[in-house]
Amino acid sequence: MQSIRTFFYCLKQGIRSIFHNGMFSLASIGTITASLFILGLFFFVTLNVRHVMEGAEQNVGVTVLFEEDCPQEKIEAIGAAIEKRAEVADVVFISAEQAWETYKAEHLNEELAATFGDDNPLEDSASFKVYLNDASMQDVLVRYIETLDGVRKVNAMDGVAESFEGMSRMITVVSVAIILVLVAVAVFLIRMTVSIGISVRKEEISIMNLIGATDFFVRFPFVVEGIILGICGAAVPLGILYLIYGKVISYLSGEFGSVFRKLTFLNETQVFSILIPLLLGIGILIGWFGSATTARRQLRKISLRE
Amino acid sequence: MAGAYDLQKDLRNIQAPVIRFEQVTKEYQKGVHAINDITFSINKGEFVFIVGSSGSGKSTLIRLMLREILPTKGKVFVAGRELSRLRRHQISKYRRSIGVVFQDFRLLKDRNAYENVAFAQRVVETPPGDIKRNVPRMLSLVGLSEKYKAFPSELSGGEQQRVALARALINNPMILLADEPTGNLDPKNSQEIMHLLEEINRRGTTVVVVTHNHEIVDMMQKRVITLRNGRIISDEEKGGYVYAKY
User: Fold this and answer.
1) Interface test mutation site (partner B, options A211, A217, A300, A306, max chain B beta carbons within 10 A)
2) B235 or A251, which is more confident?
3) Chain B positions in Cβ-Cβ contact with residue A304 (cut-off 8 Å)
4) ipTM of the modeled complex
5) For the sheet containing A88-94, what is the strand order?
6) A305 contacts B92? CB cut-off 8 A
């Protein structure tokens, strides 16, 4: 009961102090907002790049074409040899007829397709589509398949995984650098806000020390102040990001529908179920760290204890 | 609980001196002694004046008793506990058993008399119901029942010191330390404050008053410890300023 009362007393004092130091509080919230907003954007991009990469990894397959007039037994032996590999998730045989039907459906209109009649220009294009469970093993697999007897050609999409990873790494490095700078500024501003709060209440604090207030009782309102600033600094960008995320995704899907035809983005629920606790956690951490360390140092000075 | 500090309990049970300085020296700067090799004791229920000119070391004694500072040499005991051995978390509990008033009152200017006194109880986490009962009783004891809504700026020096006294006493301290309590008061108010301190002492609180107000010291005829240049030059059982030859 006593600790609940003390908690609410400290909460009240912390809120009072936020309004008392209005401009510094606003600056602190603004800086945390800016850093967490960038963090949120970085998070959107990274998460979606990863999502797309996973999709790409699953969909990007290696195509194995056979030598002309390769007998069916040899084709089956090639398939069996490939299936045994650990990095192989699935091997699908695509006959020449299936290849032609797929090509017609994807690239030709009905009129043009009809001009071919019963001809199959892809007569020698029966193949295995090999799907990997680990895209990074693609080169190893390709080298292996090329050694198999009866294999004419192996088609692989070079560098897909690498380019996605490279892009993701670059975004990460740039974003982390910006976020670190902004977090440092946010911590500095919180420290300034708390320092001002302490200097304004210096007399009160020295009286509290003399009449037997515990360290917790003196310090906690400032920590509460910092944490509230952190929460506000996280809530504002979360609100903004929530408003823009759906719009950006539907804009990208609509405007660049043809480009992104095969790509899908994460929906709001998938993204925000991680982003909300992440940003709130970081906001609270920034607020707590900035205020607790400052309050500790400043209050020690006031207490005059040796 | 092992190591828990309960001064109130220690004070109730103590037979030995309630405050004891043993060969205490305090240097703020190397070679400059604020107090030098001081030894004295104060018994439970005593009323003691500590007198001397400015720079004689009076306030240093108060700060040592409050455990605001530590001695450079020697030991300070309160209720049998050596203060330098108190752990950080024990200091706040220790101070709850000591009331303190200052020459400049140290009241919170943005709070009225009632709130200033209640603040001392809130700080030590007293339940609100108890605060509502205790504060009017204490304001009545110091004669300020009618002015509980007044802010410090609306009170005279004497009245502000009464509020400070009420704040110092609200948590029922066993020791009251008063650092120049009449320093900013006229003779009439000074006398009234002293009578209040005497009344508080009669109720069992050990009172230590640091002052250079010789009229008050002469009037009260209490024990007087006189300091000069950081040393005790006299300790009179029922002394006065004149007897201290200061």
Assistant:
1) A211
2) B235
3) 68-69
4) 0.77
5) A88-94, A127-132, A61-66, A151-155
6) no
- Give how far Cα A155 sits from Cα of A127, A142, A146, B137, B178, Å: 10, 8, 10, 94, 93
- Name the residue among A5, A204, A304 with its Cβ closest to that of B108: A204
* Residues of B in Cβ contact (< 8 Å) with A5: 125, 127-128
Q: Which residue has the higher pLDDT, A118 or A247?
A: A247
Q: What is the pLDDT of residues A120-138, one digit of tens each?
A: 777 777 888 888 877 778 8
Q: How far apart are CA A156 and CA A64, in angstroms?
A: 9
Whether A144 contacts A60, CB under 8 Å: no
Cross-chain Cβ contact A212/B88 below 8 Å: no
- pTM here? 0.67
Chain B residues whose beta carbon lies within 8 Å of the beta carbon of residue A216: none
Q: Is B120 on the interface with A (CB under 8 A)?
A: yes
pLDDT(A261) > 60 = no
| Residue A16 touches chain B, beta carbons under 8 Å | no
Q: What is the mean pLDDT of chain B?
A: 86
| Band (A284; pLDDT cuts 50, 70, 90) | very high
The answer to whether the Cβ–Cβ distance between B123 and A213 falls below 8 Å is: yes
Q: B75 has which bridge partners?
A: B22
Is residue B235 within 8 A of residue B49, CB to CB? The reply is no
Q: What is the mean pLDDT of residues B216-237?
A: 89
Q: Looking up tokens 């700067």, which residue turns up? A: B29
Q: Do A215 and B88 count as a contact with CB atoms less than 8 A apart?
A: yes
**Amino acid letter for position A301:** K
Instruction: Tell me whether residues B124 and A305 touch, CB distance under 8 A.
Output: no
User: CA-CA distance, B104 to A39, in Å (whole number)?
Assistant: 52
Separation in Å, CA B148 to CA A215, B132, B193: 29, 12, 18
pLDDT at A85 over 70: yes
* Residue A119: count of CB within 10 angstroms of its CB: 9
| A214 interfacial to chain B (CB closer than 8 Å) | yes
Q: Which of A13, A207, A217, A304 to mutate to test the interface with B (most CBs of B within 10 A)?
A: A207
Q: Are A211 and B95 inside 8 Å of each other by CB?
A: yes
Query: What φ, ψ does residue A241 adopt, rounded to 5°?
Result: -65, -40
| pLDDT score of B125 | 83
pLDDT in tens, A16-58: 888 877 888 888 888 888 888 888 888 888 778 777 766 666 6
- With residue A85 as reference, give the H or E element that holds it: none
Residues of B in contact with A203 (CB under 8 A): 106, 108
Alpha carbon distance B167, B106 (integer Å): 10
Which one-letter DSSP state was computed for residue B221?
-
What average pLDDT does the segment A70-93 reach? 87
